[in-house]
Amino acid sequence: MAKIIIHEADKRGHANHGWLDAWHSFSFASWYDPTKVNFGMLRVLNDDTVAGGTGFGKHPHDNMEIVTVVLEGALEHKDSMGNTESIHVDEVQAMSAGTGITHSEYNHNKDEKVRLFQIWIFPEKQNVKPQYNQAYFKKEDRINKLQTIASPITNTDAGLKINQQAWIYRTALEEGKTITVTPHNTNNGLYLLLVEGNVTIMDKELNRRDAIGVYDTDAVEIKATNNSEVLIIEVPMH
What we know:
By secondary structure, the protein is mainly β.
């Protein structure tokens, strides 16, 4: 029988630092909830708004798969591998921190905020060589269908490659449309965050920024009550 976890939007962790307004689906920084430490191999899902002319200074990461999805504005990334890139709307960045990197993330546009999701997934293998990739994903390619934005480095599926048996999708469902998501194996669970709109998943009604985790199931159906966007993260549960 399917197991379900509901994470309501207003029960996420919240920290407003002025320059950064952050909502945490899982325990992060000074916010700790023992019931929300992770969902399988999914460790972090942050919903961040970065004010104009501000950003995250240089900081280190290691042994973590980090995926950034920009919803509004542009975020500049600089890292110790020599990458200097701007990530724009509908672009996704995937970084395997591996043996260790440092990077900074900054909003150089003083008149426009940046809104983004940042996802951290525990890696399948420790201490790999750090890697960086970035790509643009057209919105029209996710209307009423799944758009794969990240997938395991060990297979040929679409999306940026990450060091874990995990897949990340986006879908933009029109009112009344239904889509089914099938995990790749019985050990994987699905964590679905409603970005915008209203949907029904596993007979549960979700509103903007609500999330549901589902595991021990063969498939999950999403039905859009109105025009909606959903971020879907499939990860091993153990």
